[in-house]
Specification:
TIM Barrel; 9 helices; 33% helix; binds SN-glycerol-3-phosphate; binds calcium ion
Length: 241
C-alpha cells in the first residue's frame, strides 16, 4: 500500500511545519510526516522550511542569526488564530513517542552548509530510539552520504528535481534506500524499475486528484502531499476488496 506522508504536516489547511499541522496530520490518519530543519545560532535544530523566518512567521531575518530562545518568541501560525512557535526537532520527536508515525527529516543545508547539522539530528534521533522511524533526505547529496556514513542504520533518500538516468543505480551507489523525486519529473516506468531494484520512491508534492490516482495506481512506495485527508480518501479506492 502506498504510504501517505503529510508535507510540512497537514499544510493545505494548517500552518506549515507547526505542531498543529503535525498533530492534525496524525489525527487524519497519515502514515508519516515530512518536515524541514534549519539550525539556530546556538545550534538548536528547528523545524522551518526557509533559511529566513520572514515568509512563515511574524519575524524577519535568518534562522542562523537567532538564538533558540528568541526564535521561539515568533509566531509561526500564519493560518491559525492561536499563536504557535516554530517547533524544535526535539519537540516533534518527543511527541512522536505518542504515535507510530514515520518522519522524513529534510536537511535544509543546500544553501547554508550548517556545520554539525547531520551529527545533531542523528544524535537526537538516536536519543529517542527512533532510528527505524526516520528517513533523512536532502537536496544536498553530500549531506545525504555523510548522514549514511554517520548512521548507516537510518534510511537516507536524496531529493531530485531533475530526470536522473537509472536513479536506482545512483541511489544504490550512495547506499540510499529511498529516493524522493519531484512528481512531475519521473515516469511510471522509472518508478517501477526503481522499486524493482529495492529502492523506495516517494514523489513530492502530490496534491491533485489525478496525480494521487496515478501514484496509488502503480503502488508507488509513498507520496508526499499537503493534502493528507484527500489522499487518504482517494487511497481507499485502491485498498478495498
Ligand atoms: O521533501 C520533499 C519536498 O518537501 C522538497 O521540497 O521545497 O517543499 O522542501 P520543499
Ligand atoms: Ca521539504
Amino acid at each position: 500500500m502506498t504510504q501517505i506522508f503529510a508535507h510540512r504536516g497537514y499544510a493545505a489547511v494548517f500552518s506549515e511545519n507547526t505542531m498543529g499541522a503535525f498533530v492534525e496530520a496524525e489525527k487524519a490518519g497519515a502514515d508519516g510526516l515530512e518536515l524541514d530543519v534549519q539550525l539556530t545560532k546556538d545550534d538548536e535544530i528547528v523545524v522551518i522550511h526557509d533559511e529566513k523566518v520572514n515568509r512563515t512567521t511574524d519575524g524577519s531575518g535568518y534562522v542562523k542569526d537567532f538564538l533558540f530562545k528568541d526564535i521561539r518568541k515568533l509566531n509561526a501560525s500564519k493560518k491559525g488564530v492561536k499563536k504557535e512557535p516554530i517547533p524544535s526537532l526535539n519537540e516533534v520527536l518527543d511527541w512522536m513517542q505518542t504515535n507510530n508515525l514515520v518522519c522524513n527529516i529534510e536537511l535544509k543545508n543546500d544553501l547554508i552548509p550548517y556545520k554539525g547539522m547531520e551529527e545533531r539530528v542523528i544524535q537526537l534521533v538516536r536519543n529517542y530510539g527512533m532510528t527505524d522511524r526516520i528517513i533523512i533526505s536532502s537536496f544536498n547529496h553530500y549531506s545525504v552520504v555523510y548522514s549514511y556514513q554517520l548512521a548507516p542504520e537510518i534510511e537516507t533518500a536524496p531529493l531530485f528535481n531533475e530526470r536522473i538516468f537509472m536513479p536506482w543505480v545512483y541511489a544504490q551507489s550512495i547506499r540510499a534506500k529511498g529516493m524522493h523525486p519531484k512528481y512531475s519529473r519521473i515516469s511510471d516506468k522509472i518508478i517501477k524499475s526503481t522499486m524493482e531494484n529495492g529502492i523506495a520512491v516517494r514523489p513530492y508534492t502530490v496534491n491533485k486528484d489525478a496525480d494521487l490516482h496515478r501514484f496509488f495506481n502503480i503502488r508507488c512506495s509513498a507520496i508526499i502531499t499537503d493534502e493528507p485527508v484527500k489522499a487518504l480518501n482517494i487511497r481507499k479506492q485502491y485498498t478495498q476488496g
